[in-house]
Amino acid sequence: MPGPDQPTLLRMLQSAVRVPDHGKRTPFRFLKIEGDTRHELGALLAERSRARDPDASDSVIEKDRLRFSFAPVIVTVIATLGPDEKIPEQERLLTAGCVCFALLQAAQAMGFGAQWLTGWAAYDPHIRSVLGVGADETVAGFIHIGTALLDAPERERPDPVALLSDWTPG
Ligand SMILES: Cc1cc2nc3c(=O)[nH]c(=O)nc-3n(C[C@H](O)[C@H](O)[C@H](O)COP(=O)(O)O)c2cc1C
């Protein structure tokens, strides 16, 4: 189940960086997890999972060990935040979120399966440090990219009619 090779991945990223970006801050960067490093990260996750919860069952630990093993390529989209005199952090985080979605769509448009996942690993201080995520940074998403083995199950979608209202003054 191949993932994108480097030129293909770069084409996806070329697409993913074309997002709205107030103040042109480029508040994001990419960290690729591929090949054997996925399993090395999985081993660290399993170890950390055990440390977080010594009573965790073996199946929970195994689930954590395998989190990064399913897709051949995982692109970590890291939001680069921190103080900024003009652009609120929220807006920069939204830009990083747009990058995640744009990358998902680019991967899917190029025929790959892709999924935006986070899980505890995105927020755990030890795993953040292992990934080199800085104090002013946050993991916006792990974008797992590979070959879809089956169609993703459809789910009920929100009804835009129920979500839409009209503002009226006063
Ligand atoms: C920021 C973010 C983090 C997510 N993390 C997870 C996750 O860790 N595990 C998970 O099963 N789904 C997660 N999802 C949801 C999936 O990306 C996806 O929406 C879900 O599997 C349903 O797929 P669909 O939206 O194509 O129907 C996350 C979504 C977002 C926006």
Strand content: 15-25%
Question: How widely separated are the two ends?
Answer: 58 Å
- Helix/strand order, N-terminal first: HEHHEHEHEH
How many separate domains make up the residues?
1
Distinct ligands, ions and cofactors found in the model: flavin mononucleotide
Stretches where pLDDT falls below 50 for ≥5 residues? none
- Give me the secondary-structure category: alpha+beta
Helix content: 40-55%
Overall CATH architecture = 3-Layer(aba) Sandwich
Physical arrangement of strands within the biggest beta sheet:
1-2-4-3
C-alpha-based Rg, rounded? 18 Å
The CATH homologous superfamily is named: NADH Oxidase
| Name of the level-1 CATH class | Alpha Beta
Looking at CATH, which topology would you report?
NADH Oxidase
- What is the 3D form? globular
**How confident is the prediction overall: mean pLDDT?**
97
The tally of helices reads 6
Report the sheet with the most strands, covering strand number, pairing sense and barrel closure. 4 strands, antiparallel
Number of strands: 4
Your description of this structure?
- By secondary structure, the protein is an alpha+beta fold.
- It has one domain (6-163): NADH Oxidase (3-Layer(aba) Sandwich).
- It is 41% helix and 18% strand.
- It has six helices and four strands; from the N terminus they run αβααβαβαβα.
- The protein has helices spanning 6-16, 36-52, 58-66, 89-109, 125-131, 160-163; strands at 28-34, 73-80, 113-117, 137-146.
- A four-stranded antiparallel beta sheet has the order 1-2-4-3.
- Helix 2 (36-52) packs antiparallel against helix 3.
- The longest helix is centred in the middle third of the chain and has 21 residues, at 89-109.
- The model has no long low-confidence stretch (mean pLDDT 97).
- Flavin mononucleotide (FMN) binds next to strand 3.
